[in-house]
Amino acid sequence: xxxxxxxxxxxxxxxxxxxxxxxxxxxxxxxxxxxxxxxxxxxxxxxxxxxxxxxxxxxxxxxxxxxxxxxxxxxxxxxxxxxxxxxxxxxxxxxxxxxxxxxxxxxxxxxxxxxxxxxxxxxxxxxxxxxxxxxxxxxxxxxxxxxxxxxxxxxxxxxxxxxxxxxxxxxxxxxxxxxxxxxxxxxxxxxxxxxxxxxxxxxxxxxxxxxxxxxxxxxxxxxxxxxxxxxxxxxxxxxxxxxxxxxxxxxxxxxxxxxxxxxxxxxxxxxxxxxxxxxxxxxxxxxxxxxxxxxxxxxxxxxxxxxx
Length: 308
Known about the structure:
By secondary structure, the chain is of the alpha/beta class. The protein folds into two domains: 13-125 and 291-306, Rossmann fold; 127-287, Rossmann fold (3-Layer(aba) Sandwich). It has twelve helices and nine strands. The strands form two sheets. Strands 7-6-5-8-9 form a five-stranded parallel sheet. A four-stranded parallel sheet has the order 2-1-3-4, with helices on both faces. Helix 2 crosses helix 12 (284-306). It is globular and about 55 Å long.
């Protein structure tokens, strides 16, 4: 049976530890030799496509990119039939989709013949979370994710799929997470990738004040206020989220050596100012680097199961 990587929540602590370890350790460039990875993107992304395709290539495999226009999940062809087709030709399907339910539908339709990786859905963004953990560990603990317990991470702005995966990953490592967001943008309970159900480890705190969330934080994290598909809400979102913009004043409430994370793309002047994004405390480009690391870890973990 194939291994899948759909949410952080679904992974055991042991599997996550293995992924973190494999992400940054020497690798065999023939791990995927002769095997293909189908990259299916309903939503575009520079970093996700670049990191996925480069990681596949470095592991000796080949990647084929399929855009929404080419496949048309549930418009041109059902998700089940897309999955069945890909399973005939590829070992792994890595998908960036609008509806998280596509993963289970493909898994059932293919009887787990093809490994599935969630490159982003409306519920979760687990590969981004792995990259974020690696970035934080590189800065604070020389890459050792087991030594992050007790850190304070503040996520400020619109709590999204990125927030959920990030929080689940960090809480399970003993990191305390505070989410600062106004009413209507705060974390909501979700059936999958729900930080509120993480037992033990770090403490999750919700606040409606950006200042309260950031105070004495080690890490300050934000994301775009207007995600793909929400462009019609731009004016309203800008007005309601303006008090949560990350600028020098807000960063000044965090610890003196606090760092800034942003999963990109950044809407400069909206959720973050140029001074902060381009400042000395910003680790955003290490996050980009570790998107590749995260994919290497996930792909190697998937193939490790196959080689048992």
